[in-house]
């Protein structure tokens, strides 16, 4: 048991693995980009309306392509926007800048200008064009002429990959020359937007080799000024590494702001697609080799972004291939289509990401993605104005884009809580601990009935103030594990806990420990027993707190002849305190981690029963759908938009053909005037049951969308 003392720090140091950048497919977006200005809302902000994109991530040999054929493929796919290579590593136009490398295959075009030909042909069809720029690397020839632009490791080495040299955002290439490229490009091609690929400090390369912090001269000078003389870190264990990440965030934030300003001045109607704070937020859906497969990653990413910035579009660029080392191995049709279904279910922009052109590098799963792309196109009025509309908010630790790139250990509790809610058909939105204040403010005081903090750790002062006020105003807060604890201190005034005494966090300490609920009328038995896995925090509680469940400490677990006894403790499984018109409930243990790792059937109900009791299902009702179906609730004006995502085809590392679900229904409160299935095109039968309406569903394959028109009050 680890005891807590006053001399210990007020805030535990985060694990270094969670501070590393998130390497996803071909796009590296730093996890800590802060607020950057976005274009003002005008009639030119075309990206505020639904659109559909196809990215041809071009090889240099593709510069001679038949642009009319590719546009035929794009339109047949259901897309109306094309993301094409522009400049940076390789210029797909005849750049006159000495620090740009012209694609030698431009010579195959009569015009010598791929971008110009593509833009002219797309304009004739009404297809929008966005330019992909990648300033992360330069040729060896350019790098030798400008060594001060390059990434330098702590050992003094440059980062070389496939004959290209990585550059540093602190250096003059990003700080000056990239703006000259944009000025030249925008002056020739009035594109509709820009996407910046791999804008990072290159701590990782394509092989996931970790290079560490950049030690180029520009970084040495800039970090010295930023840190007031602290030396650059040499590893993630260096005490200065956290400060380095703050520095890189500030540098990238400044670049994002300046790029946004320049684009606005050069092409006022062009959007910037980048990280969390650009005109369009970006997420890449992929199936990275070596990463724990999380089938809900796409819907999660969209909700994390949309919850705290609901007015900002999210573009989900779905990779047809398995992973970067396997760029020509297609994932399965249903797996690929589910990326798109998850994206549109929460109002994101679907985007198809393929290598080369659809004809030159065909992927059999393109049609599966195209079927959902065309579905969104054909039902655009439903998605134009679609917003999330759940009454429960699930909160994960860190920021909206924080994740480790090789494992999910930082997300175990969040994912366990996610699965518990999903399988109980409790619709929910998601946000991060960093964004909780902004999310609750954007949603309005009465939007969320229940907020679940999934082992989020120490909260910021702003989050503490926001949550305390929200609880006293009628919200119901459920905090699991470390949420709201700063070492031994309890942060929230509404918490039923007073102080933390100790913590069990090793498997040896927790082995054969349980949370048990007593059975009424049975003094010697328990109604529901759940093991404890992950951690348990021993605490003292307010006298007015209602405690339920009892922690059973270790008793013998072998040999079987001696496996008996119930070592009850004074510590609860759950504690709740009413505050104002709301309440604050503490699970002093990681209920989600236990459910996810051990798979015990009774554990998830300890959480979902409370969420339901506190009104977390909101205006939703119930369903007899199997637990493999995820229910996503949205709203468009006065209609409810219910997406039903069928994960019955889920396998170990992919999603296969789902089982068709038949003879199911959903039950919603009140009277329904009309219900229709967008997938089948049917108007659905509605039965009246007292104060509720039962909607009879058609057979459901991979997904369906039910549009419900309620009776006006």
Give an overview of the whole structure.
The structure is a single chain. With 713 residues, the chain is α/β, with parallel strands linked by helices. The protein has 3 domains: 16-26 and 50-387, TIM Barrel (Alpha-Beta Barrel), CATH 3.20.20; 391-613, Rossmann fold (3-Layer(aba) Sandwich), CATH 3.40.50.880; 622-710, Sandwich (Immunoglobulin-like). The chain is 25% helix and 28% strand. The chain has 16 helices and 38 strands. The strands form 9 sheets. The chain has a 9-stranded mixed sheet. Strands 4-5-6-10-11-12-13-16 form an 8-stranded parallel beta barrel, surrounded by 7 helices. A hairpin with a 2-residue loop joins strand 32 and strand 33. The longest helix has 26 residues, at 241-266. Residues 1-43 and 401-409 have low confidence and may be disordered.
Mean pLDDT: 90
The domain tally reads 3
**What is the name of the CATH topology of the largest domain?**
TIM Barrel
Strand tally: 38
- Helix fraction bin: 25-40%
CATH class of the largest domain: Alpha Beta
Largest sheet: 9 strands, mixed
The backbone outline, from C-alpha atoms, is globular
Structural class, from helix and strand content?
alpha/beta
Distance between the termini: 57 Å
- Alpha carbon gyration radius: 27 Å
CATH-level-4 superfamily name of the largest domain: Glycosidases
Question: Could you name the ranges where pLDDT drops below 50 across 5 or more consecutive residues?
Answer: 1-43, 401-409
Identify the strand order in the major beta sheet. 19-18-20-21-30-29-28-25-26
């Amino acid at each position: 048991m680890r005891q807590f003392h006053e001399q210990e720090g007020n805030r535990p140091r985060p694990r270094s693995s969670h501070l590393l950048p998130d390497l996803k497919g071909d796009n590296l977006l730093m996890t800590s980009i802060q607020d950057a200005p976005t274009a003002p809302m005008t009639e030119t902000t075309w990206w505020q309306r639904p659109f559909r994109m196809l990215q041809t991530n071009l090889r240099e040999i593709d510069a001679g392509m038949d642009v009319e054929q590719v546009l035929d493929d794009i339109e047949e796919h259901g897309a109306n926007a094309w993301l094409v290579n522009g400049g940076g590593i390789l210029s797909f136009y005849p750049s006159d800048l000495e620090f740009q490398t012209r694609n030698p295959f431009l010579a195959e075009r009569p015009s010598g200008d791929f971008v110009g030909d593509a833009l002219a042909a797309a304009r004739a069809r009404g297809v929008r064009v966005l330019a992909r720029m990648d300033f992360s690397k330069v040729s060896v020839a350019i790098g030798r002429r400008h060594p001060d632009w390059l990434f330098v490791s702590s050992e003094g080495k440059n980062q070389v990959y496939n004959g290209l040299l990585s550059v540093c955002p602190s250096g003059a290439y990003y700080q000056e020359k990239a703006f000259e490229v944009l000025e030249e490009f925008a002056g020739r091609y009035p594109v509709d937007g820009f996407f910046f690929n791999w804008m990072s400090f290159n701590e990782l390369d394509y092989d996931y080799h970790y290079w560490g912090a950049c030690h180029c001269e520009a970084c040495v000078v800039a970090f010295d000024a930023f840190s007031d003389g602290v030396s650059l870190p040499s590893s993630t264990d260096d005490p200065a590494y956290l400060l380095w990440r703050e520095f890189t965030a500030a540098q990238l934030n400044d670049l994002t702001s300046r790029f946004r300003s320049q684009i606005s001045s050069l092409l006022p109607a062009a959007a910037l697609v980048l990280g969390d704070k650009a005109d369009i937020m970006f997420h890449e859906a992929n199936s990275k080799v070596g990463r724990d497969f999380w089938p809900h990653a796409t819907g999660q990413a969209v909700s994390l972004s949309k919850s705290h910035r609901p007015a900002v579009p999210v573009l989900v660029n779905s990779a047809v291939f398995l992973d970067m080392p396997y760029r020509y191995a297609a994932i399965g049709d249903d797996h690929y289509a589910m990326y798109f279904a998850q994206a549109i279910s929460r109002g994101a922009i679907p985007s198809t990401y393929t290598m080369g052109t659809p004809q030159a590098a065909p992927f059999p799963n393109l049609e599966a993605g195209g079927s959902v792309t065309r579905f969104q196109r054909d039902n655009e009025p439903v998605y134009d104005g679609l917003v999330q509309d759940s009454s429960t908010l699930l909160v994960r630790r860190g920021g909206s884009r924080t994740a480790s790139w090789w494992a999910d250990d930082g997300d175990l509790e969040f994912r366990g809580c996610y699965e518990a809610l999903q399988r109980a058909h409790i619709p929910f939105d998601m946000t991060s601990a960093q964004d909780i204040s902004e999310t609750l403010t954007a949603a309005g005081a009465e939007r969320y009935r229940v907020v679940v903090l999934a082992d989020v750790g120490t909260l910021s002062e702003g989050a503490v103030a926001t949550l305390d006020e929200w609880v006293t105003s009628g919200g119901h807060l459920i905090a699991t594990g470390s949420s709201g604890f700063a070492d031994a201190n309890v942060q929230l005034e509404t918490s039923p806990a007073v102080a933390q005494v100790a913590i069990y966090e090793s498997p040896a300490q927790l082995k054969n420990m349980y949370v048990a609920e007593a059975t009424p009328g049975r003094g010697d038995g328990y109604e529901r027993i759940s093991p404890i896995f992950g951690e348990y925090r021993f605490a003292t509680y307010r006298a007015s707190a209602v405690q339920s469940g009892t922690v059973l400490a270790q008793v013998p677990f072998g040999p079987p002849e001696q496996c008996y006894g119930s070592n009850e403790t004074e510590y609860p499984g759950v504690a709740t305190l009413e505050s104002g018109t709301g309440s604050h409930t503490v699970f002093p243990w990681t209920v989600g981690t236990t459910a996810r790792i051990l798979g015990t059937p009774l554990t998830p109900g300890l959480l979902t029963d409370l969420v339901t009791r506190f009104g977390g299902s909101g205006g939703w009702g119930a369903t007899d759908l199997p637990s493999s179906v995820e229910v996503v609730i949205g709203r468009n004006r006065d209609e409810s938009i219910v997406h039903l995502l069928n994960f019955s085809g889920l396998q170990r590392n992919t999603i296969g053909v789902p089982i068709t679900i038949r003879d199911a229904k959903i039950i919603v409160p009140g009277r329904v005037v009309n219900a229709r299935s967008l997938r089948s095109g049917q108007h659905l039968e509605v039965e009246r049951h007292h104060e509720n309406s039962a909607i009879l569903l058609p057979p459901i394959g991979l997904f369906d969308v039910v549009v419900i028109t309620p009776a006006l009050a």
